Amino acid sequence: METQQGIAELKRRLSIVGLQVTDQREQFRHDSFYFAIGNDANQTDIVLPREFLDDLPNTKDYHAIVDTYARAVAGRLKCGSPEVFYCQTGLAIKVSIQWPIQGGIYNGNLWVGVLMYVMSEEDGKMRMPHV
Predict the structure, then answer these.
(1) Residue 102 has what pLDDT?
(2) Residue range(s) defining the domain that contains residue 60
(3) In sequence order, what E strands does 39-120 have?
(4) Is 61's pLDDT higher than 60?
(5) Please, how many CA atoms are within 13 Å of residue 87, restricted to the half-sphere of its CB?
């Protein structure tokens, strides 16, 4: 009964960020559970021990762990390619780093920087270069 409540809590917390459990099953002599999670476009999987699931509904530290994991996975699945990053704003971006590293003297101090261009994957617009 406790495990089923934990699984329900896991699914609820994943759904908040748009993820769903697409497959689940017990693993390893009933000591853990396998979950395929994601959305229509992309998925990933995770194995969680029964003890974690049993304690999930009543353990606030576990809530934070699941919420952080869910946000990270949702961002990565939304963007797809590992070349694309996920902004806190919800915007998928691609970062292009221009080599070599630029350097110089500014106000008497050595200044070293990397020039980057940030492009929005949503509208294809180039954002201002950042140093």
Answers:
(1) 66
(2) 2-80
(3) 43-49, 84-86, 92-106, 109-120
(4) yes
(5) 12
